[in-house]
Structure formats: structure tokens, C-alpha cells
Amino acid sequence: MKIVVIGASGTIGKAVSSHLAVRHEIVSVGASSGDVRADIRDIAQVRRLFEQVGKVDAVVVAAGAVHFGALADLGPEQFQVGIAGKLMGQVNVAQVAAECLNDGGSITLVSGIVAEQPIRFGASASMVNSAVEGFVRGAAIELPRGLRINAISPTVLEESLDAYGPYFYGFEATSASRVALAYSRSVEGAQTGQVYRVW
């Protein structure tokens, strides 16, 4: 398969690319690095991305920023970080990819554990991750040509504990390589409308 990995230079993206590259052709995409550059917040850039890479068999996203902060301090600008980046960025990818994937192709997005297990300072992240999962379930019943869509919901990564550990006291961390297995299950499996939890 020819697989586009968006966010390929990130912790999860590197693990996913490494895991899938053993069996498939990988096209790495990032906002500032990769085989192709694209900021998924801009649907015009997403369209240019797929014009450049042509027909593919799978698209996976391992990117999308969210803002962590106290609820009382969250204003429209802080909420917009996750809405524009992690939510609408991935929606942009899914909608354009649906036109560019080969029949039977797949789209894999990323959410996160706080969709179901909220944390202090994570109201925006919980909102965005829940919305991503809702989009996946809704889109799955409408995608044409046998296309599939799923989401991966990881817990905090072992590799990211220095940065995010203080938000996740009491949570069991997982490795990026274990998260990559869930991406493989989505890309190389047969299910659609699923949220694969890696907790």
C-alpha cells in the first residue's frame, strides 16, 4: 500500500511510519518537514498535498495541537487552538482524502484518552477529542466506495512524560510503538467507525 502519514516527524508519527514502512510505501507529511509539507489547518494546503502525492491506499494522522489550561482561563483563542488544529485539521484531511483514496482505502485519525477520562486543565482537549471520535462514527456510515475511517485514542506516551506527565498523574503511560500497532490495526484491518483505545 501507499500510505500518507501526516505528523510523521512526531513521536507517534515516527513509530507509525517505522512500523508500516516494513510492508508499505510511506509518504511523510509535516507542517515543516517530510516528503511533502502541509498545514492541515488550511484545507487548500491539504488539497495541494493530495494533488502532489496522487492516489493512495491509506491516510493516517498523528498530529494536532490542543491547549491545556484552567477552564477559567480558557477563552475563544485557547479553544480555537484545538478546534482549528486537532479537530478541523483532521476533518479537512478526511474530507479531501475521501476523494483521493483508492477504493477500499482507509483514514485513521487521532483522539486521546481525555475524551473519556478527563483531567484537570484538559477541558479543551476533552472537547476536541470527543468531537474527533464523534466525527469518525458519523463519517463511517457515509463514506463511499468501501472507504473506512477509525480513530486511535492513546493515553499519555512514555516518551512524552517529561512534557505531559504532570497532567496525567495516576495514568499508566504507554509506548509510541504500542500506539503504532493500533494504527496498523486500523490501516491493515477491516473495521470502520471504531475508536481503538491504547490505554
Description of the structure:
By secondary structure, the chain is an alpha/beta fold. It is built from 6 helices and 7 strands, in the order βαββαβαβαβααβ. Strand 5, helix 4 and strand 6 form a beta-alpha-beta unit. The two termini are 28 Å apart. Belongs to the short-chain dehydrogenases/reductases (SDR) family.
Topology order in helix (H) and strand (E) letters: EHEEHEHEHEHHE
Query: Distance between the terminal alpha carbons, to the nearest Å?
Result: 28 Å
| Strand residue content | 15-25%
Q: Are there runs of 5+ residues with pLDDT below 50, and where?
A: none
Major sheet, described briefly?
7 strands, parallel
Tally the helices: what do you get?
A: 6
